[in-house]
Design a protein that fits this description.
Strand order of the largest sheet: 5-6-7-3-8-9
Order of helices and strands: EEEHEEHHHEHEHEEHH
CATH class of the largest domain: Alpha Beta
Distance between the termini: 46 Å
Structural class: alpha/beta
Strand content: 15-25%
Number of strands: 9
CATH architecture of the largest domain: 3-Layer(aba) Sandwich
Number of helices: 8
Largest sheet: 6 strands, mixed
Radius of gyration: 18 Å
Helix content: 25-40%
CATH superfamily of the largest domain: P-loop containing nucleotide triphosphate hydrolases
Length: about 260
């Protein structure tokens, strides 16, 4: 199992330097600068319209900065990056296993070649017994598990997650938060996670970037230096309550600046 280093010992993975992104007359991001290190769990926390999803699209290569630079220590290969969207975006005509096969299929690999990798990914998300099921037969939380398995099946260095649990009920959301941290620990990846939830950001992250809108920018970075693994005991601790107060105060400041 890969070991996550302390925050101050992690080598850099990639960096945004003074990144601006405009769409016509709208400035979605202004002066975005952040270094992402190997093993980080970074949450982008902020109100709607502050550019959180735009940051993910820039990092994924789906769009380019209007100005500024995005640089990688080592240019990422195709299987170095996994993406999980707010909706599971599964192929309804394909089985669970076939959906997880998709990243390998795009690389030209047959199902037989990567069957063991697919089954291992499904085992890690607790769906190995549902490999022949179809999306219509799954609950919302199970569909999201398939989406996570698909993102991690190639063992990427970096996983980008755009509010993946926003539409789920609180009990399912808590369970998937727990499972996500366990999965991250097992594959040793870096995660950048978009959320509106102060509570979710504190539970998951060791770094929280609080963003304000109009224009989108980081106004504060908070470090959550509570140890992993985290569980329901941490959720009810005074330490957790203290971190959530700090994040909530920073988010209120961000919303006031965007008003």
């Amino acid at each position: 199992m890969p070991k996550t280093l302390p925050l101050d010992q992690r080598p850099p993975l990639m960096r945004l330097d003074g990144v601006d992104k405009t769409f016509g007359t709208v400035t979605a991001l202004q002066g975005m600068s952040v270094q992402v290190n190997q093993g980080d769990f970074i949450s982008l926390l902020g109100p709607s319209g502050c550019g959180k999803s735009t940051v993910l699209r820039l990092i994924s290569g789906l769009m380019r900065p209007t100005s500024g630079r995005l640089t990688w220590v080592d240019p990422p290969k195709r299987n170095d990056l996994g993406v999980v969207f707010q909706e599971p975006t599964l192929m309804p005509w394909a089985t669970v296993a076939q959906n997880v096969w998709l990243p390998f299929r795009l690389q030209g690999k047959t199902y037989v070649e990567v069957r063991d990798d697919i089954l291992e990914a499904l085992r890690l998300v607790g769906l190995d017994k549902f490999q022949t099921s179809y999306p219509r037969e799954l609950s919302g939380g199970m569909k999201m598990r398939v989406s996570i398995a698909r993102a991690m099946v190639t063992r990427p260095k970096l996983i980008l997650m755009d509010e993946p649990f926003a539409a789920l009920d609180e009990i399912t959301r808590f369970k998937l938060n727990n499972d996500l941290l366990a999965l991250k620990e097992k594959i040793g990846c870096t995660v950048i996670f978009v959320t509106h939830s102060v509570f979710e950001s504190v539970f998951l992250s060791d770094r929280i970037l609080v963003m304000a809108a109009r224009p989108g920018r980081v106004i504060e970075e908070l470090q959550v230096d509570a140890p992993y693994p985290r569980d329901d005991v941490f959720r009810t601790s005074s330490e957790y309550a203290g971190f959530t107060r700090k994040a909530s105060d920073a988010l209120h400041t961000a919303m006031e600046e965007a008003a």
